[in-house]
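Quick check before the chapter quiz. The format below is the same one you will see on the exam, so make sure you can read both the input and the output lines.
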Amino acid sequence: MADKENGGSKTDGENGAAATEQELQAEQEQEQRRVRLRTTLKTQANALLRKNVTFQKRNWGTNLCLVCMPILMCLLLKILEIAINKILSGPDYRCGCICTATGSNDTGACPDPSQQMCGPQYSNNKQTAFCAVPNPYMYPAMVQVPTQYFRAVNSPQNNYAGLPDPSCRSASEPNKSCPAIFLYTGQNQTLANAMGTYLTSPFNLTAWQKMPGVSTPGAPAAAPPAAPPAAPPGSSGGSGSGDGSNRTMYNGTMGLAPYLYNFASLELGTNASLTLTLIIDPAFTPVTDDPSKLYLLQPNCSTPAMLQKPINFSFGGFTSGKPPMQISCVPSSPLWRPNTASIDTELFNGFYQAQTALYGGDAASNEYAGAFDFNTTSRTLFNTTVYFNSSFRGTSQGPRSGVRFPKAMNMATNAYIQAVFNAAAELPLLFVKDFPKVSTQLSLDFASLIGPLFFMWILLLLFPVCVGYLVYEKEKNLRMMMKMHGLGDSAYWLISYAYFFLLSFIYILFFVLFGSLVGLKFFRINSYALQFIFYFVFGNWQISFAILVATFFKFTKTASVVAYLYVFGGGLLGQFLFGYFLEDPDFPAGGLFALQLIPPFACYRGLYEFSQSAFIGSYQATSGSLTFSNAGSLGFWGAVGIMAVQWVIFLLLGLYLDQVVPSGGGSGKHPLFFLDGLRGRHKHGNTLSRASRSHRASSRAAGQVEAEKEREDVMAERELVQQLLQRDQLDHGYSIVCDNMKKVYPGRDGNPPKLAVRAMSLALARGECFGMLGPNGAGKTTCIHMMIGLIKPSSGTAFIEGKDILEEMDDVYTIMGVCPQHDLLWEQLTGREHLYFYGRLKNLHGLELQQAVVESLKSVNLHSGGAADKKAGQYSGGMKRRLSVAISLIGKPPVVYMDEPSTGLDPASRYNLWAVVKEAKKDSAIVLTTHSMEEAEALCDRLGIFVDGQFECIGNPRQLTSRYGGSFVFTVTTPSEEEDAAADLAKALSPNAKKVYSLAGTQKFELPTADVNMADVFATVAEAKSRISIRAWGIANTTLEDVFISIAKEAQGAHAALS
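Here is the expected output.
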């Protein structure tokens, strides 16, 4: 007996050892599968790159239109520029010329271009600005005198002492002129009054007209002296190759210094506005329709002979010509004011009323010729502040290009000398002159003029494209689909960034090349090296900013609208807000720096510097403009530096928010996820992490409360899960272990929180297919979404092949396949290309990959008839569903989730799909949701009926029907008048018979199995036929559908009663 027992024990030991060896071998094979499915960054990037290249090839039309956009815009700019320059090519927009052979100023009539002479002396007032002037004219300085109608007069609005009567403005009194008012003040009133009387001095007009170079109409000009007198002290001499006595000054000598000396002794004024050039004062240029530009300021103009004397004069190579210039005498009136505050008020009020009249007010302007504050001036100190008028009537956009200030300063100086030292003393201001300048031509560089705004719009058009691309993949869950099949975030961002960079590079390359080819000086004049640096930094800045912005959007349409509004709004704000501060010399540099921190003002600053440099370079006809030598002084490097720093910051912040903010990339990570190493994260073997322990502890109480109300089979499943987790080492035989997973959605709009899943526990062994049955809205899809990482559990956790979904979800993605409820496909890719992409993500290569793709296509009937090479967008709903199933199974992942895989399939395709799933579950654990009881019985080893967020029962189909069915269904059809007799027949079969259906004579009764004997049923029915007209009858076991309906109704009723 002992030997038998020992022998029996030895046999049991051998069997146990063999079983353990088989388990270890199976575990080793499973581990090899997991290792094989893990892909490197290179493999993932290669798979995504191949998919994107194929996808973009199919979208070649869209990409071509996108990269051609800058070409079209540059072409449009060039056409506009040519059209505008055609208009501006007239004679008024270039230096005036004369043909010496014909004496004509029509340059086209000159037979020999060498006989054509150009210069200011042959130009009118408009043409002079474009002439080359190597030796600028010397001309007398003058005071800016208001036009008679706007000179200061006494009025109710301007009731100040000493102002003349408004009648002097009347045109009916031509011999009466309003005086030019000079206000003055000072601490020493006596000295100030004396100086005021010497601001203008009387002189002999007749004697002045006899000066050399000056003549009255009808009389020849006086001859110049034989030998010019010595130049005044401080004058510079020189030599020149003059072409006449009247040109020696223009050639650089002081031969005409006596004429200028006599002009310097006058207080000349003018009402002419200064133009863009100071080569010659516009007051000396002959303008036919306005001969009265010159004024002679005198203390008294009572002598009629001094009012208007037409004269011709010549100085510095410039002759007044015909008609003769008229010098009109204007009385000057210096008026004392007690302090500078009163002067400021009087000057401001005069200008303010001018603006009031300009914008529809009733008051007219009161303009002054100037004002002087002699401050602390004494006999030993000259300290004077000069007010000069640069705000001419009707101008509100800032000062003119020049102001007539030197003569006013000279008047104050002479007044001081004459009042303090000698009334005959004089410090003459001989002349003023402009700097030498090169010739220019008004060829409007339209592209440079509008460059900052227009080119900014062109460059930023890629921003909505990048944002829309990223948000689209989130909205359609395409990125999540790739992630669930093993694509890591690093590979995704690497390839996406590379694609955006390549797109930006081609886009900007076409932009610069074509702009240069069509001759846009915005590109050709500025340094190409600087342009490369700027556009390189800008392109990366734009990509990183798009990555950051995309994290805040879930819908493509919203993101695109906001992005386009940003593009156009940013351009307009840059042009009309930031550009205004940029051109303001008084705006602090710190303020500009702070504004440039706001995207995209730094970009605008760089384009602004390119534009301004190109515009100035084009106007000055220079070959180069913005270069390395001057870029720093123009603020260019500051803008580039800001964009470079923002590039790094935006990229890091965008990648961080992509991990933390829940979006299309799955559930968000902990805000300090990058410190996982310091927080003690455990990833060794199947050991439970600290976070999982905490998460489990927080849900354990809720799970115990739920367990008290559960059926035995559900409680047994929960106990099994607890046993697997108690040892901190998961049983290698289970692929999926869910521990008290719970999901609560927060309440909105005053509604209470929604409890979607209630402490679900489930253990799924390898090679098992588990089916989840339940009505719509029961929480089945939410359960799967938690297991695949699409949403995060409110409490509890799950372990997939020993990996915690809370902390090791990236590892879980590499070992699972997903067939989502809705097909997530690229419509431009074929079925074969989809499988190649996902096969590469499963680490399949070469021949193995090709065989796996072909087998997958054949298994779902997509290989024949060219279906494999047809675009997914052309597939029917059933074909898309089959392709989604093939994608989930390629590479034979250990865990597969299928959410209603047979939806929309015809019966033949459905049965074929079932065969595929049955074959796949040999190597994988499968979680399947379905509404088809037939499918559940055909595929699932175990079923769980899920109602209102929790399992109501768990078991195989036969167990569920026998355990929760517990009755036969007796069906009988009789004439309507014999329904009562049929009911009596059911009662005869079982006293506990329950009618569950009745319609048109057909009735169904539930008969408890304990009360029914099949032989008695047949005998009783046979006997009843003699009394009742039984047309048809039958008896059957309870179906799975009956069990599902019964349990669902019971659970929903119980939950409704509790709520």
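If your answer matched, good. The radius of gyration is 49 Å.
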